[in-house]
Amino acid sequence: MTSNEGPNAPAWPEATELADEVLWLLYQRQQPVGLDELARLAGTSRASVSRALEQLSRRGHVLNRSQVGLCLSQPVRLDACLIERMLRSSRVGRHAIVFDEVGSTNDVAFDCARRSGSDGLVVLAESQRAGRGRMGRRWHSPRGSNLLLSVLLVDDRALLSHDAVTIAAGVAVAEATADAGADGRLKWPNDVLVDGAKLAGVLVEARQVHHSRCIVVGIGLNVNAAPPAQHVERPATSLSAVLGHAVDRLAVLRSLLERLDHWVAQVAGGHIEPLRQAWLARCGMVGQRVEITCHGREFRGTVLDVDPMEGLLLAEDSGGQVHLPAEASSMRT
Ligand code: BTN
Predict the structure, then answer these.
(1) Rounded to two decimals, what is the model's pTM?
(2) 14 — pLDDT class (breaks 50, 70, 90)
(3) Distance of alpha carbon 254 from alpha carbon 203, whole angstroms
(4) I want to staple 266 with a disulfide (CB 3.0 to 4.6 A). Which of 42, 188, 238, 271 is the partner?
(5) Confidence of residue 213 (pLDDT cuts 50, 70, 90)
(6) Is 104 touching ligand 1 by the criterion CB < 6 Å?
(7) Dihedral of the CA atoms 202, 208, 214, 219 (nearest 10)?
(8) Probe ligand 1: pick from 111, 146, 149, 203, max atoms within 8 Å of CB?
(9) Nearest 5°: CA angle at 304, between 298 and 307?
(10) Under DSSP, is residue 40 helix (H, G, I), strand (E, B) or coil?
(11) 178 has pLDDT over 60
(12) Helix count (H) and strand count (E) of the chain?
């Protein structure tokens, strides 16, 4: 289900195959390559490569040409063929669709659940008209700069607890930011912050589609641009602001999807303890005083532990202990 959706989607399958191959060769090279060399590597003629390059331009890829050859201009445009070829995952990201603009990638992912074989599909968009955040908030992201994606998990055997997937997604995002060189820390349940500024958010939703229980993991990760200040309630940041250089979105996407693949497999296999340990290692909230709203009630207390199935374990100021489920809770401090 490789697909790049939009007005410039190409018409002929064979031409698309060659364009995909040329794109993959250029992406892997990361440095200028001559037309003859490209034709040799692709096993075809210069003329065919030229046509493939024209198709890539129509697909929105920008090529830098110099005397030494041509290369992809950075940041490389998200492309389903690149995503599917680079991933080493068993479930998450087996198929990819990239849109220029959608309402919400979460909604598109649920729509795709009607097609058979869509488990593991990742839906990406360069921009969203109605990106959803947790607790009814909006998610804003400058076009073409960041990662806006949703992963569809068709959970026919009811192996995936909503709360455990929520925790797993946060851990995967925090680990991917660490792979990129930034120390992303988790804020309950799955915001990822750097120095208190929000880098990423996760919205996990579950719906029944026909006879299947479907979970969609929606992730917004600010890679090369933070949203404008007037659109956010709290300070926001981006990987590029933290690291001081432009960041390859595809490299971040790869580690994010591969790590999510790992944690989803752990949850499906009932291996919850490693997930708990990974969340605690990236969080550092144990022992902190917090205020949390859960099911409309306010809780104040000290964080004791996390249980991916039951939630955050809080020693309440008023006495006693309570588990606050991830799906329903939001931190105020
Ligand atoms: C939050 O922190 O409130 C969660 C934000 C989740 C935003 C992502 S962007 C991709 C996906 N599509 C949506 O509409 N929302 C999620």
Answers:
(1) 0.93
(2) confident
(3) 19
(4) 271
(5) very high
(6) yes
(7) -20
(8) 203
(9) 90
(10) helix
(11) yes
(12) 9, 15
